Amino acid sequence: MKNQSFNSAEAPRPGASPQGAPDWERVLCVMVVVDMVESVRLMNEDEEGTVLRWQTFVNDVQNHILPKFAGRLANKWGDGLVLEFPACLHAVGAALAMHRALAERQLGLPLAQRMWLRAGLHWTWVMRLAQEVYGVGVNMAARLAALAAPGETLCSEVARDQLIDGLDARIEDLGDCWVKHIPQPLRVFRISTPQTQALRVSEAMPAPPPASPLGVPTLAVVPLRGLEHDGLTQSVGEWVAQAVMDPLLQCPDVRLISRMSTRLFQNRAWTSVQLKEVLHADYVLSGHCEWQGAAIELTWVFRATRSEQVIWQQRISGRWSDLRRAAASWRETLVARVLQSLQQDTWQQGQWRPLPALNGSLLLMVAVQAMHGSSGASFGQARKQLEALIDRHPRLAAPRSWLALWHVLSVTRGVVEGSPDWAQQALRQVRQALDLDPGDDQAWATQAFVQCHLLGDLDRATDSVQRALALAPNQPWAWLFKTTIDSLCGRTGQAFQAAQQALALSPIDPLKYYHACLAGHAAAFDHRDQQALVWLTQSWRLNRVHAPTVRMLVVVHQTLGHTQDAQQFLRELLVLEPGLTVEKYLARIPAGHPERRRFAARMAEAGLPQR
Q1: What angle do CA 312, 317, 321 make, to 5 degrees?
Q2: How confident is the model over 89-138, as pLDDT tens digits?
């Protein structure tokens, strides 16, 4: 499937076709296995009626649902279907439509006579012979279906990474599940219809914070879509979009939606109205790129999200190597036109810092995703990927900043115990990043987090995060780290506002669980326990093995008097952090903060041992 951008560190890999079987074809696709629940009982009670209703439903699937979602029926047996789709978005839409269509057909039947489906969804390489598919990936989808309850759809972790929570579906992390004949547990996610309609995710996307300047428009830059749907063209689209976003990040008169949020829309159909609903964007800059022999044409389209009307288009064409060398020129022209269209008088031009190699850019994205992934194995792999990228490009600042952040997260997640040597390792990476590029806002933000969490130097952390925001007022990570720093400094009201700003700048980030976690911490510091519970619950729903989220859920539930919930989350916490005690919690830097002592007391009330 050429139009899918996937994590090469985690996605299944193709193998060689079996010898002596020249008709086999290896394809990357999304497999959905659908099974009828309690088919034996239904057949015994009403064999003819059950078969008739099932066949009618299968015909409806083939004639109406599958064509609508670009799917096809690959295999079929008595009470089950194996379906193939080109993308996870299509597969989820079809699975939810099948559940809905079957339920609507049976409204007049007694509950005991109704048929229910369970479905499993997996993105994988399969072996295709003629119209049928086989292989380990198909079996994995079947295992997932077997885990599902009546009316449920479950998906694998690699499939979940292709979806936008709240837009494509409501996604809930079910944790690690053991299945038959698979030696390692599977990370499983439940897929259901979004609770809110019209593409709204109110719990995840607050309105822009009231502290923001009035009248400042919000802009979303969507990476250019490749008409050829190949990986190289998609990478070009991401690269040029980042080149345009870098100077806009440093413009205080525009609120810029983060790349992690907008890149999810690169290869999917969307309308301007939907981007306004989902991203709260007032304007969108998007377009497509197309190869013409050795040259490439970039087409930019600028529109207001209040309608589908295009304000202007601009085309840039030439050999790719020439366009890269002349990037500063066309980028400046394009940004100036955007700002003029937004009716701004001035803008602050910043230094352009996209990674110099496309494969390096993709490797960085893979490492960042792995660092914030749900499994401990992927977290450990992220360090190796970042170190490999540093070896390949020793003069790049970005991977060193992310490696420093990895050191911080390894302590906050309880993977390692903090130590002076560990802190110096992180500080060395971020200082090397700043030596390479003193104007790198991401490096300044990361230095602030290192100074806060590993060194306990809140004054210097405050100075560093303010420097990051002065360089790039639209840097969501700087606002996110500011929430923790302000909270620990006692500026809890400012921390809460910073959390709102961070969520507004990156509303559907793939790392949304982390944003929601730190926002929940800020709300708890400010004694906004109900709001903290909303954000922390959202974070936990997306990632159930993130120890900082589970720790604060113990605190908030205990504070609100939800004793049983607090004790349940404490049991989960002790699985994630065996041996955790109040003493060990307080020993983590920064120690002794009065709110941290309050949190420790709440955990002790829930049953956390003192030592």
Answers
A1: 135
A2: 899 999 999 999 998 888 888 888 889 999 999 998 888 887 888 889 99
Q: Name which residue leads in pLDDT, 345 or 153.
A: 153
Q: d(Cα 502, Cα 552) in Å, to the nearest integer?
A: 19
Predicted pLDDT at 94: 94
How far is Cα 446 from Cα 472, in angstroms, rounded to an integer? 13
For residue range 2-36, what is the model confidence (pLDDT) as tens digits?
333 333 333 444 444 555 555 778 888 899 999 99
Domain containing 376: what range? 364-606
Shared-domain flag, residues 588 and 482: yes
Of 587, 582, 586, 589, the closest CA to residue 603 belongs to 582
* Tokens matching residue 293: 């022999």
Q: Are residues 305 and 408 in the same domain?
A: no
Query: How do 186-192 and 170-177 pair as beta strands?
Result: antiparallel
Same domain (yes/no): 427, 555: yes
Question: Are residues 94 and 183 located together in one domain of the fold?
Answer: yes
pLDDT at 22: 54
> Is the residue at 174 inside a domain?
yes
CA distance 411 to 436: 26
Strand partners, 512: none
Cβ atoms within 10 Å, residue 595: 17
DSSP state of 19: T
The structural domain count of the chain equals 3
Cβ neighbour number for residue 361 with a 10 Å cutoff: 18
What pLDDT does 205 receive?
42
